[in-house]
Design goal:
By secondary structure, this protein is of the alpha+beta class. It is built from six helices and 28 strands.
Length: 421
């Protein structure tokens, strides 16, 4: 009987301890002080105050969000990194590249967001640490890291003409991609080309790496063309993403089209529909005819070297049939080597009378490119890239549309058929 009575109070004390723990953890803490009269009572009161104060202290209401998500890969080098806060304001954002190099950035005027001040590097890991405060000054912290898209997993669009340039009416917008594009619809849809003339502009693909844009007829003179590349994060091929977000504008100059007639051996230069000059020329010989077709001047050199070996004209020793190191006033018409250029080595009597070249169009000129009175110098001085040279009656085939910037040799229906949108 005595043993039973002693066991029951023991069970009662365990039950009381369990209830105390359930009702409030502070009573459990008090029990740690033992059964020590006044000392125990005083220790329990102090512990309760500490716990109550900790429980009453709230965390910051500020909520920080960092993009892209922590651990992301293939992130954009333009628009991926951003820090925002709700229910508070940003006080500090530190972004560092691998190796500890800090990235410049700026917190917005309302202190609600932050972003880098410049384009990020490709294939680089970045870490972001952000701090914010709520209205009561309580701090919140957030950390994240991500890796930008690598060169192997990204593509670049190289374009012609240059931003801010003035070009002739025949200059297409020509875009060359550094990697083959298989998602052509997605990529073309992310590129906009428009003109103040209101002309309809359509893109045409030449293979997987080149996309040209032009209107049905030549650009209207004195108009402005805008190119928008919205390629950032566009998947051009499986796992390969664009990294560009860019707007380019260029102006169209006066309308100059020069018509070369290989039969009459003359070139009529027309400007805004009026003939301003007729120049005797010498086109390709019967053995080396010049291409027919509308050709756009893509490059201009006051003097340049022309080596026949580079375009397939070689003698038995493998050397070029010609190698002229100072050809004056050379203007490129094709990527395969067709030029309209000055000629100082030929007799003046051939111009207007005989076709003697290896396929280029020759104009009488002077060695050194310094005689402004010569036809070659006049034409060079009155030409800009994008001007059109329309070559006729050579007896040869029409130049391929992708041999240079010469898509004008394709009719509008054919051109539109090459669009992916």
């Amino acid at each position: 009987m005595t043993d039973s009575r002693r066991r029951r109070p023991g069970r009662g004390r365990k039950g009381l301890a369990a209830v105390s723990a359930l009702v409030g953890g502070v009573l459990v803490l008090s029990a740690c002080n033992g059964d020590d009269g006044g000392k125990a009572s005083g220790g329990g009161k102090e512990s309760r105050n500490q716990v109550d104060e900790a429980a009453a202290e709230k965390t910051s209401a500020a909520r920080i969000e960092i993009a892209p998500k922590n651990g992301s890969g293939n992130a954009s080098i333009h628009s991926a990194a951003k820090v925002t806060v709700s229910e508070g304001t940003l006080t500090s954002v530190v972004m560092k590249a691998a190796g500890g190099q800090a990235v410049a950035g700026q917190i917005s005027a309302d202190k609600k967001s932050w972003k880098p001040a410049a384009q990020l590097e490709r294939a680089t890991k970045y870490k972001i640490s952000a701090t914010a405060e709520d209205s009561e000054g309580r701090k919140a912290h957030e950390n994240s890291s991500f890796t930008t898209v690598s060169r192997a997993n990204s593509f670049i669009a190289n374009f012609t003409p240059e931003d801010g340039s003035t070009v002739g009416v025949g200059m297409p917008v020509s875009i060359n991609f550094d990697k083959g594009i298989t998602n052509k619809k997605e990529v073309q849809s992310a590129i906009e080309v428009s003109s103040t003339s209101g002309q309809e502009v359509v893109g045409h693909w030449f293979g997987n790496n080149r996309l040209d844009f032009r209107p049905e007829e030549y650009w209207q003179g004195n108009s402005t063309v805008t190119l928008k590349l919205n390629l950032d994060r566009v998947e051009g091929a499986d796992g390969v993403y664009g990294v560009q977000q860019k707007t380019v504008q260029f102006k169209i100059g006066r309308n100059q089209v020069s018509v070369v007639d290989a039969k009459t051996k003359t070139m009529k230069v027309t400007r805004d529909g009026k003939v301003v000059k007729t120049i005797p020329i010498s086109a390709g010989s019967p053995e080396n005819k010049t291409y027919n077709g509308k050709m756009v001047i893509s490059e201009m050199f006051k003097e340049t070297r022309m080596d026949g070996a580079t375009v397939g004209f070689k003698d038995n020793d493998g050397k070029g049939e010609y190698d002229i190191k100072d050809v004056p006033h050379a203007m490129r018409l094709s990527s395969s080597g067709t030029f309209i250029h000055g000629n100082y080595w030929g007799s003046p009597s051939i111009f207007g009378n005989a076709n003697t070249s290896h396929g280029c169009i020759g104009l009488e000129d002077a060695k050194g490119a310094g005689d402004k009175s010569k036809p070659g110098a006049w034409f060079f001085d009155n030409t800009i890239t994008g001007d059109v040279v329309d070559v006729r009656n050579t007896g040869d085939k029409t130049i391929a549309p992708d041999n240079g910037l010469n898509g004008w040799n394709m009719d509008w229906a054919q051109w539109k058929a090459g669009s992916a949108v």
